[in-house]
Amino acid sequence: MSIIQFCYVLSAILFILGIKSLSSPETARRGMNLASFGMLIAIIGTLFLPSIVTYHWIIAGLMLGTVLSIPISLWVPMTKIPQRIALSHAGGALAACLIGIAEYYQYNQAIDSVSTAVIGVEVMLGALTFTGSLMVAGKLHGTLPSRPITYKGQNLVNISLFIIMIALLIYLIFYPSQDALFYILLTLAFLFGVFLVTPIGAADMPVVIALFNSYGGLTGAVMGFMLGNRIQIITGALDGASGFILSVLMCRAMNRSITNVLFGAFGKIEATAEKKSARMGDHAVQSINIEEALQFFDQAKSVIIVPGYGMAASQAHHALREFANKLKAKGISVKYAIHPVAGRMPGHMNVLLAEADVPYTDLFDMDEINPEFPHTDIALIVGANDVTNPAARHVKSSPIYGMPILDVDKAKIVIVCKRSTSPGFSGVDNELYTKANTWLLFGDAKESLAKLAYGFKRNW
Amino acid sequence: MVNPLSIADIYIFILAGFLGFQLISRIPPLLHTPLMAATNAISGIALVGSIAVAGENYSLLTNILAFIAVTCSTINVVGGFLITDRILKMFKKEKPHSENKT
Question: Global pTM?
Answer without folding.
Answer: 0.87
